[in-house]
Amino acid sequence: MSKKDAFPYIRAKVDQLLAVIGTQPLRAEELDDDTLIELDPIGIVADSFAQVIAHLNETNHRLNLATDEIRAIFDTLGAAVVVLDLDDRVDDCNRRALDWFFGGVERAQVTGRSAVEVCSCAASLTHVRAVADGACHVVNLYGQDVQVVASKIFDEAGRHAKTVMLFTDISQQMENERHLQLYAKVFSHVGEGILITDADNRIVEVNPGVSRITGYVREELIGETPGILKSGLHEPAFFEEFWRTLRQTGHWHGEILDRARDGRILPLLQTISEVRDASGTLTHHISVITDISSIKETQSRLDFLAHHDVLTELPNRLLFSDRLRHVIERAERDSEAIALLFIDLDHFKNINDSLGHQVGDQLLIEAARRLKGLVRRADTVARLGGDEFVVLMENHASHAAAESLAEKVVAAFKQPFLVNGVDLYVGCSIGITLYPEDGADAVTLLKNADVAMYRAKDAGRDGHVRYSAELSEASRSKIELDKALRAAVRDGGFELHYQPIVDITRGQVVACEALIRWPNGPAGAHTPDRFIPLAEDTRLIVPLGEWILREALSRMRAWQAGGIELDYMSVNISAVQLAQPDFPDRVIALLRESGMPGRKLQIELTENVLMRDIELCSWVLTHLREHGIRVAIDDFGTGYSSLSYLKQLPIDNLKIDRSFVQDIPGDPNDCAIAAAVIGLARTLGLDAIAEGIETREQQDYLVRIGCDKMQGYLHARPLPADAFAAFVTRPQTC
């Protein structure tokens, strides 16, 4: 190459080197050919190359540092980054992606390999790559909510070459959002009211529950203080304690009376809590309010029911006893007298049993109204239970005033009560006690008034009796009798005697009546006419009556086994027994227990028992008759006779009462009655049995007018079982 040709070449190479190292190429005017020769172009080139190499090394070092820094950032990202090429090969990924998708292997083990080969969720990766559009997608990977952002990478020619995918675990975020949504729903739909105030006690938010409870809409409350709900019913001390507790503990819980928008008083159960930020500064108060109006109403109703009679709404025994104690304390302090009237309705049980409890309840309501209309405003009327009422007279009470009121009550209760369009008649018996003469405490006054009331009943009812000490002695005797009776029922202190029923035409004993005896009963009280009424009043007649039936049937069975064959055993049944819902079933069960057929048992009922509830009696007796059990009417003619029941009820025998037998044949009226009963029985196909036969003349007359079955002392008194058996087996002389 000639010198002339070398100059442009050298110049061009120098320019190239200068350009590489960042220096502008030489201009011709800066260096001519002679200068270039003088500058030693080869040296210049060598130096330039050295500078270029040094620059490149420095640049590579910086690039390496930058690359390492970027890789470090890339690997420490909380999100997983995966780069796929168009063939779904892994071009690159960060540490998070390696742990998440590729089992924690090294990057070199997955780069350049198909995603299908190295990733269990490759289908998700390739799907995301396929739809890459720069938008966010939420997918579920490994049971987690994952947000994916996928972007395309283009080459120099603008062609899609790779896809970068950024995977972010948003499970916690989604869970938080779900919780927030749930909290929002709770806030909006919870039945309680939620009220939020700021540090200045201004309302910043309320839920719909607050509006429902108070009547204020949200817009009316925002910016106001809770004082907008103030009722004005609390003393200042209440709120002083309220704020003191809230500031000291951060909480307050209790009942408060607020006022609704329409002016109603709202009893609320309120819980208030402070909300503080991380630095401990108060930011808000959260108040939860519950409307307890219905609870308060229920409590009030329950309190009323606890102290008042449900039926009449009069004070009950509990409230009356408490009130009586307070009145006694005041009377003692002021040296005043008080009077107590204990009132019990007469014949109420008959109405209740015959007409039903609904009618009985309505009668009690009307009786309560009538009583309240008779007393003074200062007097107290209460119902102790059942058909028992009391009146407490406070101001200016005296014996005369108490008796005057008692007479008014007795007179008023003699007037009919209109119930369901029917006039019902009940009287009342009243016992009177005065404080302090008849008792110094509530218990004694009530007890003594009760004693006096029972004496009024014993005296014929429809009247009043003032308490006296003598009455207490009689009451104590009755209590002792009741105690002894209960012990006898419990311990088996009774026995049965048996009175023969004789058929005169056959000349033999054909049946008997079982009669209860109390051999070791209290003096003067062992006869049935003394203890049976008490047993009925106390309902002891139910277990006692069952014992009588069992014992009678057992004895009948024993006699039959010993060769004594009777047509039947007759047993008396009380109204209390008959009213038991399971009475027929119990009788039938006892028959089966004894092994005796039903025809061997006869039950005796008085007319009074039958007439209490003719429908009930018809059902019971028909049920018993289906099992062969006989029925007899005892003391026929002495009750509320209505001959119509004779054709309504399944009756076998009429027993002529001893009151119609004792004066025959001398008394023509008794003779006529006896003849009429016998004729009636014959006409109806019934047997007539005369009771109380004591003389031969009575027997002979009755035989002449057609009565051949008799019972009385002429033949035998009621006998113990062994004596009866001996009597039956000896020759009869009728």
Please give a structural write-up.
It contains 27 helices and 25 strands. It is an alpha/beta fold. The protein folds into 5 domains: 3-67, no CATH class; 77-174, 2-Layer Sandwich (Beta-Lactamase); 190-297, 2-Layer Sandwich (Beta-Lactamase); 309-483, Reverse transcriptase/Diguanylate cyclase domain (Alpha-Beta Plaits); 492-729, TIM Barrel (Alpha-Beta Barrel), CATH 3.20.20.450. The strands form 5 sheets. Strands 18-19-20-21-22-23-24-25 form an 8-stranded mixed beta barrel, surrounded by 4 helices. Strands 2-1-5-4-3 form a 5-stranded antiparallel beta sheet, with helices on both faces.
Q: Which value, in Å, is the CA radius of gyration? A: 56 Å
The helix/strand class is alpha/beta
Strand content: 15-25%
The CATH topology of the largest domain is TIM Barrel
Number of helices: 27
- Overall average pLDDT: 84
Strands ordered across the widest β-sheet: 18-19-20-21-22-23-24-25
How helix-rich are the residues, as a percent range?
40-55%
The largest sheet, given as strand count, sense and whether it forms a barrel, is: 8 strands, mixed, barrel
CATH class of the largest domain: Alpha Beta
CATH superfamily of the largest domain: EAL domain
| Terminal-residue CA separation | 185 Å
**CATH architectural type of the largest domain:** Alpha-Beta Barrel
Uncertain runs are none
